[in-house]
Every structure is written in C-alpha cells, then in structure tokens.
C-alpha cells in the first residue's frame, strides 16, 4: 500500500532529519538517491528503511537496489511523489531515500589504528565545503574528520550528498571548540599542525609526525593569530599565483597528499 500522507510517521521522521536537533536526538541521517542508498546498504551502518516512488520502482536501477535491500531485510515503503518531495526538500527528488543510523566513533578507536592524521575543521559554515572536505579526508587517508560545535553538522543532507558516500566510511568526531581539541590532542601526543597562507614554514620542507592533527580555519576568517599560538607548527602551501588562499578541500588535499608522500604510502 502506498503512503500518501506526509503525516505518516515514517515520512515525518525522514522529513524531520533536515533538522539538526532531530538528527542529533535520533542519531540518524538521510541518504538520498540510488548511489548513497546503495552505499548505505553495503556499509556496516543499519538502514532503518527505504522510501521510494512508483516511477522509481519501474526504473532499471531500482531492481538491483530494492533486491539488495530485501536481502538485508531492510523495510521498503512505497510513497507518493508528493510525500517523497516533502521529505527530500529537493526540487527534483531522486525517487528513493533511506533513513540510516549515524556511524559512532571515539578518538580512542581512531588512534588505536596507529599512524594517524586527523583533520580538524574550525567553524565551517558551508555544507558543500564540509562535504567536499569529508570526501577529501577519506580519499587521501585521513584518519578522521573532527568538527567543532560552530560548524555545520556533518550529517546535514547537503553535507551527506557532497561527501559522495564518505560520510559512511570516514570517522567523524566532534569537539566543543578549537582550544578543547588542541588540549585533547596534546594529551594524546598528537602533533598540532595549522595551515595559514602567511606561515614561515613551507609545506615540502615540513615533516609530519606519525600521529598528527591538521587544523583548517573557516572559509571566510581562517585561523586567527591567537589560534596559531596553539599550534606546534604553522605551515603554508606555496602559491606562486595571486590568490590569497585555497579552497578548504583543496588545502586539505595538498596537506594530506604531502603526508602520504612523506610516509612513502604513495
């Protein structure tokens, strides 16, 4: 039977996950579209249920996805297009979405893997930027992404879409503030590295330690002089061009690539 009311409890839960408070309370997030739903089904994270429309069910990709969900005993519910659109919040919903449990990690679990590099993102406001950063951290071997309470939620639907599935694979941690994170990092013997375009140390001449945290500032303000005093090392990426700074994900990618190069993992 098709769900046609947006007041249905499943539809209301899906729609409610656009609200950060509800995501934090329920510890769930939305996976929208075939790719994200497929990655969620193939991940260790429990998928509570999938919502899909009749037109989607007739598409070629639906056969594989819905069969996979059935094999994993994930409940499937057909909904009207209007219900899915309200739950999605997109002008053109992809026809299928899943409600997925948020992965839960601890700093101890991340550090137990040995050589680690955790990326701390300070006051990142743009969901697209955070999604791209998360994708970059996962792609280039970062151990985890750490955000402060002033940053956009890593499970915001726009962040999830921008991460291209990395939200399911890259550990995500939260610290109250940059100062709190640096204090915790020092207790765990992490090398604190901050990136700033006016730093004296140039990246290729700087050596990463075996366990470190790279700190990146916000899109608009960057890191303040007070923030930089908390670092063990402040480094910059050489930029012969006239641009004053790099995109957040690009800067993280260069730093993490250099760390990989130094560790001879590439």
Describe the 3D structure.
There is one protein chain. By secondary structure, the chain is an alpha/beta fold. The protein folds into 2 domains: 9-101, 60s Ribosomal Protein L30, Chain: A (2-Layer Sandwich), CATH 3.30.1330.30; 107-262, Alpha/beta knot (3-Layer(aba) Sandwich). 38% of the residues lie in helices and 20% in strands. The chain contains 12 helices and 11 strands. Strands 7-6-5-10-8-11-9 form a 7-stranded parallel β-sheet, with helices on both faces. The longest helix has 15 residues, at 248-262. It is elongated, with a radius of gyration of 20 Å. The relative contact order is 0.13.
In short:
This protein has 266 residues and is of the alpha/beta class.
Side by side, the strands of the main sheet go: 7-6-5-10-8-11-9
- Per CATH, which architecture of the largest domain? 3-Layer(aba) Sandwich
Q: Under the CATH scheme, which class of the largest domain?
A: Alpha Beta
Please provide the count of β strands. 11
The overall average pLDDT, rounded, is 92
Radius of gyration: 20 Å
Find the structural class using helix and strand composition: alpha/beta
What is the name of the CATH superfamily of the largest domain? Answer: SPOUT methyltransferase, trefoil knot domain
Number of distinct helices: 12
CATH topology of the largest domain: Alpha/beta knot
Distance between the termini: 53 Å
- Stretches where pLDDT is under 50 for at least 5 consecutive residues are none
Largest sheet: 7 strands, parallel
Choose one word for the global shape: elongated
């Amino acid at each position: 039977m098709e769900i046609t009311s947006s007041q249905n409890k499943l539809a209301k839960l899906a729609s409610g996950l656009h609200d950060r408070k509800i995501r934090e309370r329920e510890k769930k997030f939305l996976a929208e579209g075939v790719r994200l739903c497929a990655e969620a089904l193939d991940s260790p994270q429990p998928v509570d249920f999938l919502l899909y429309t009749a037109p989607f069910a007739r598409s070629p990709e639906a056969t594989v996805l819905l069969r996979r969900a059935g094999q994993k005993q994930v409940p499937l519910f057909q909904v009207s297009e209007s219900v899915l659109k309200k739950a999605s919040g997109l002008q053109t919903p992809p026809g299928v979405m899943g409600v997925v449990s948020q992965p839960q990690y601890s700093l101890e679990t991340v550090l137990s893997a040995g050589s680690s590099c955790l990326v701390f993102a300070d006051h990142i406001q743009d969901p697209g930027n955070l999604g791209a950063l998360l994708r970059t951290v996962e792609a280039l071997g970062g151990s985890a992404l750490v955000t402060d309470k002033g940053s956009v939620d890593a499970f915001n639907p726009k962040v999830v879409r921008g991460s291209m599935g990395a939200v399911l694979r890259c550990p995500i941690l939260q610290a109250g503030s940059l100062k709190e994170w640096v204090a915790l990092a020092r207790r765990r013997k992490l090398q604190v590295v901050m990136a700033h375009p006016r730093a004296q140390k140039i990246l290729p001449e700087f050596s990463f330690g075996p366990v470190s945290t790279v700190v990146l500032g916000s899109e608009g303000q960057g890191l303040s002089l007070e923030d930089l005093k908390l670092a063990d090392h402040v480094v910059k990426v050489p930029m012969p061009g006239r641009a004053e700074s790099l995109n957040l994900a690009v800067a993280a990618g260069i730093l993490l690539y250099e760390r990989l190069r130094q560790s001879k993992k590439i």
